[in-house]
Amino acid sequence: MYGRAMWEATTKNTVMHRIDSRTKLVLLAFLSAGAILIDSTITLYLLFVATLLGHLLAVHEINRWRLLILLIIFNIWGTMLSQSIFYNAVPKTPLFTIMPPDFPLLGRITGGIYIYLEGLAYGARQALRSSMMLSVGLLVCWTTNTRDILRSFLYWKMPYELAFINVTSLRFLPDIFYEADAVMTAQRLRGYDPLKSISILRVIEVGRQTLLPVLARSIRRAITLALSVESRGFGRKQSSIYMEEWPLREKIFVACSLTVLLAVVAVKIIDWLSFNGLVYFTWFRGGYDMIRVWL
Amino acid sequence: MKKNLQNIILIGFFLITLYFLGKHSLLPDGGSVAAISDGLAQQNTGLYQPVITLDLGKVEVRDYQKMGFTRGYVKFSPNSKHLAAGTETGDLYMLDTQGRVLWRKNAGVGRLSAMEFSPDNKWLYVGEVSPDGNIYCFGVEDGKEQWRRSSAVDIGVDIKKKSYPGIMRIVCDAQGFVYAVSQRRYRESDGLSLYNSKIISLSVQGSERWVFPRQGVMDAWVNWLSVDMQGRHLVFGTANFETRKQHEYDNNLYRLDGKNGLLAWTEKIDPVSPYNRTIMRGSPNLSADGKYLAAMTSDGRAFLYSTEGKKEWEYALCLPKEINGVYVNAVGRDGYVIGNNAIFATINTYNNANWQLPTPVEHPSSNSVFIFDVQGRFAGKWQAGGSVEELAYNDKLIAIGVGRNTKSKNAAVHGLTIISLPDAKLIDHISTTGPCMAVDISKDGSQAACIETPLKLDNGQIIGRYQLIILAKRKGE
């Protein structure tokens, strides 16, 4: 398992580290919106690859790459395989048979279990969506100090309490991973093998035995944190937060990205209106065709 | 060391995953051309050798249960230097005779429904079903769109009910004038399934010459039309399936003046028992000189008319037969006049009460091509074994796309069959694994092309691929 430091931002002098935290947060928000709005596999793939290029520019250590790759691989193949088996739309083309329909008992109950081609393609699209969000999330997490994130929220006039909750949840996420790791290490030292069997009951029991201590420690930490921030006068009127000037180049970049996002929202609405039979604009035919390929 | 190896394996696996995702996402579906060096499946005489295949991408795999099947379009240019292919997924390919893809387009929100070259080989006219129901004119060499005309203005569109207009057939005369039939299906609140149709004639520049009817639309199912080479006559037939409504355009055969679109004559063909309607789907067709027209009704009757409207002769080629209390019928579809011969084709056997129900036997005249001379003398018959999905011809040869046999379900019959005209002797048969749904043969007979489609068998196995196969005649023959 990975240590606590693995989940925290590093201090480096790379392009990704130098970018203003506000720019990174805006891009994170845009890409998250794009992951929901965009249906085109081509565009999702290109955006996903773009987030990986961001990681390359951030010059991570090998351990971080290893973690990123592991998470993405599990996400992609897990989603594709599950969707290819449980794909429920038509048409569906069986690629190969896992269990033939004439297999005793289970075959008759399930009507056969197949890997469907269309399910794989659908799963790939969903996996690209979640992998893109995972990748960009980790990129921001690994290259941006939580203090800068808090300042960015306050710069945008977010209520202090809300900004504090957001940053705290982000800040303590590595701790939760670290504690889960510590609990599992403690279990192993006592000779307990949590992954000995994959029966449902066993999984529930392992989950209970692992998550309960993590939950208990989280509650304890929350109480300590609450007492700590209250004793420092949490919630009183804040003085203005100092932030460096938002570079003009980045502001322009963010404005352009916002324009693109708004344009995507607009054409998706136009397409939705047409698809649902509400209104069709003949002059927008090229746009409808473009949406089929790119959006 | 062990960790380094793990990292290398992990990164390698990740890059492979990225590569396959990229291949799936970025590369267009289909479009890869492959040369065939050792022939394709078994051949009968080997006169025609498959030389090139073009992968047409992924398509829904259909089975024997439904009457409709995967479509495809293939057409040689009149000078045989280009080949256009259209797919069910809206891809349009233009190839040269070496099999190189010159350009490729996609219909976007539209679905391809018709295709025709101009007689001077410069333009390709393409029809689509979409909210616009456009007919497009593309340059053959560069694929550049010259013009488009919407048929939504003619026959309407109902976006809410997804009732879209479509160009169902396009033909050209020797002067290059374009004739097209547009059609739209809609359903009324009482469940009636109705159609609007209109005939459109356009100039080479895409300007409207005339429309039929001049006002309003035909309340009839029309998906076929034909003109003679000089463009003097235009004929079309109707297929009104809905029997609960009295149609204004209730006749079966119509001939228009090709110059101005005025109605010259019309004919009602009485139905035969047990039917209550006469339906035409792949006919009528005029002879090149405009003297005759051949018509085939789906109840199995073949007709030859003079252009003036005189019935020259009529044959019952595959009339419905009652067997064990069930009427079985080999559906008649195509009718052409080629030179001095009239050609008719039938498809699968169906149960008249419900086409989805099984039939006790196969109709003896099903899946066949019949050849007569224009005097009505029988010249030859070819039993294709599977549904005659499309006929293409030149002066001496007929190419037959052989598709599913829904009764015997014998997949061995699929393929492209070439027979001689007029004696219906086998020239060659090129087997395809899946049903052969579209065919064409070049004017000089040196090349043929067909589209194979995948088929799901009753045991779940999928056979065949969605691909274009180009065949060349053996040199020196």
Written overview of the protein:
The complex is a heterodimer of chains A (295) and B (477). Chain A has helices at residues 15-18, 21-37, 41-58, 62-86, 106-110, 117-143, 146-155, 160-189, 200-231, 248-275, 285-294; strands spanning 94-99, 113-116. With 295 residues, chain A is mainly alpha-helical. Chain A folds into 3 domains: 1-144, no CATH class; 158-236, no CATH class; 247-295, no CATH class. In chain A, strands 1-2 form a two-stranded antiparallel sheet. In chain A, helix 2 (21-37) packs parallel to helix 10. Chain A is flat, with a radius of gyration of 24 Å. The two termini of chain A are 38 Å apart. The model of chain A has no long low-confidence stretch (mean pLDDT 83). Chain B is mainly beta. Chain B has a domain at 107-268: Beta Barrel (Lipocalin), CATH 2.40.128.630. Chain B has helices spanning 2-26, 152-155; strands at residues 33-35, 48-55, 72-76, 82-87, 91-96, 101-106, 111-117, 123-129, 134-139, 145-150, 166-172, 178-187, 193-202, 208-212, 225-227, 233-237, 253-257, 263-267, 285-286, 292-296, 301-306, 311-316, 321-323, 326-338, 341-351, 368-373, 378-383, 388-393, 397-402, 415-420, 426-431, 436-441, 447-452, 455-456, 462-463, 467-473. In chain B, strands 1-2-36-33-32 form a 5-stranded antiparallel beta sheet, with no helix packed on it. Chain B has a 5-stranded antiparallel beta sheet with strand order 23-24-25-26-27, with no helix packed on it. In chain B, a hairpin with a 4-residue loop joins strand 26 and strand 27. The mean pLDDT of chain B is 87. Chain A binds chain B through residues 41-42, 44-46, 49, 62, 65-66, 69-70, 72-73, 76-77, 90-91, 93-94, 97, 101, 112, 117, 121, 124, 128, 274, 277-280, 282, 285, 288-290, 292-293, and chain B through 7, 10-11, 13-14, 17-18, 21-22, 24-26, 58, 60-61, 106-109, 131-132, 150, 152, 157-162, 456, 460, 462.
